[in-house]
Amino acid sequence: MVTTDYLVIGSGIAGLTFSVKIAEKFPERKVIIVTKANEDESNTKYAQGGVAVVLDKEKDSFKKHIKDTLIAGDGLCKEDVVKLVIKEGPKRLKELLLWGANFDTNASGNLDLGKEGGHSEYRVVHHKDITGYEIERALLKRVHQLPNITILPHHFAIDLVTNHHIDNYKSETLSCFGAYIFNQNTGDIFTIKANSTMLASGGIGCVYGHTTNPVIATGDGIAMAYRAKARIKDMEFVQFHPTALYEEKGESSFLISEAVRGFGAYLRNKKGHRFMPDYDKRAELASRDIVSQSIDSELKKSGDPHVYLDCTHLDIEAFKNHFPNIYKKCLEHHINIEKDWIPVIPASHYLCGGIKVNKKGKTTIDNLFACGECSRTGLHGANRLASNSLLEALVYAHNIFKYHSKHDCKSPDVAIPDWNDEGTTIPEEHILIQHNLKQLQALMRNYVGIVRSNKRLKRAIKHLDLIYNEVEDLYKESKITSSLCELRNMINVSHLIIRQSLDRKGNKGGYYNIDNAKK
Ligand code: FAD
Ligand code: SIN
Q1: Ligand 2 pocket mutation pick from 42, 48, 115, 352 by most atoms within 8 angstroms of CB
Q2: Does residue 381 share a domain with residue 338?
Q3: Hey, CA dihedral for 100, 103, 107, 113, is it positive or negative?
Q4: According to its UniProt record, which protein family does this protein belong to (predicted)?
Q5: Which pLDDT band, with edges at 50, 70 and 90, does 251 fall under?
Q6: For atom 40 of ligand 1, which residue has the closest CA?
Q7: Would the pTM count as exceeding 0.85?
């Protein structure tokens, strides 16, 4: 067993920001970051558009950013949280700059500000179209400079350790004591006992197969917290990004940033009609829920597999300068944006819900914190405003840091039993895991997508139960593998999305059920 002051699960913007802050403030305290892939692999690394922060004091204001966030969230945001996050933005961005992150500047030397759907002003700070890559680079560099942080790549958190793992532990409250960790290099499973544990394990995109997210986004932290009996909320609000690059063969995952629409690109159907003004007066810059639902409606009417993003009227040199990665990726697909329209379709992108936390980032389990995409703070309500996610992670990492600066979390001195895998064998039937995964992703795409119905949701629950039973049997008899754990986690997360969808009465933001629309 390994002991530490702080166990951080995940090395994206949320986990790294908290680790840097706490390690800088308390050099005598020990931080361990476990992360299941290479240390930089995360949703953060792929963020394109940027970080939404109010910087232009002449045209923009906190009031406007707050209003835009509340409108996007469709009445379900927690207004006090929205105010807190947005007002903290400039300070948190300053820290990121101090840690060495570089953002684009304009001719006058000020930070260049982009615009995205749902924003009434230019306020998105960016590094070309690879903002997340730059943030991840800068944070990891700082992490490596701090001797009291140990980062363990290819270490998979399997489950949280709570009261019920410990014999004769009597307490009124549920507490977290750390986690069971699977070393993917050696196959060993060991315990990390921590005074404070933070889930910073990111999103759930892979539940849908067709997603902008990388393969790590399997909802592990949410599933672990759910199994540990933490409160999970707003799971029905899965955000579909309107413009993932459509690929005829296979499932596309490359994102064409919303900032491209902010730059002036139009959405057209196959006939060439620019359809967004028919749906919303903000046209291509309506919030994401509206643009994705409008594309879905166009595709259902026409039977076409995708719509198009037209950039041919834009200043191409400026486009290449702002979006070099997107320009290059399109060329690799034989799409020359100077003359070709880009085929695009909506893909699962972001989870607005997750592990319920208060303003200090505390979950409903003692000594367990959650931050970033796995958490539900109340900022996003029913639909996240573009580029508010990186901002939320920065602000909440700071809030959790502030809490720990004032409160010394102490885990009681208890004996945690070792992981017990007696009687299990190495799973020979990898094909079963793959098969169940494909079934799960098809089920979520077909029955729990952008437009839902009660009938489809109920059918989804029935099918999911079958997959659940098969996978639980496999889990009980098998030695741990990451793919088996991830599948199990994705099943838990899917269950939460479907159940909480069925519980939602009325349509809001990213949640659209045709049965609610009829009422
Ligand atoms: P992540 O960055 O996803 O990090 C999660 C970490 O947890 C990873 O290191 C992962 O390996 C690790 N992990 C997961 N499970 C386990 C486990 N069981 N054991 C150990 N480690 C584990 N947001 C914006 O605000 N602006 C943007 O421009 C923007 N663009 C985006 C573009 C794309 C293509 C995508 C996919 C997302 C974008 N987002 C954007 C959303 C934003 O990037 C994410 O919400 C944010 O980066 C999440 O950060 P995080 O630290 O919470 O999680
Ligand atoms: C994008 O660049 O379109 C993604 C922005 C976001 O998800 O906030």
Answers
A1: 48
A2: no
A3: negative
A4: Belongs to the FAD-dependent oxidoreductase 2 family. NadB subfamily.
A5: low
A6: 47
A7: yes
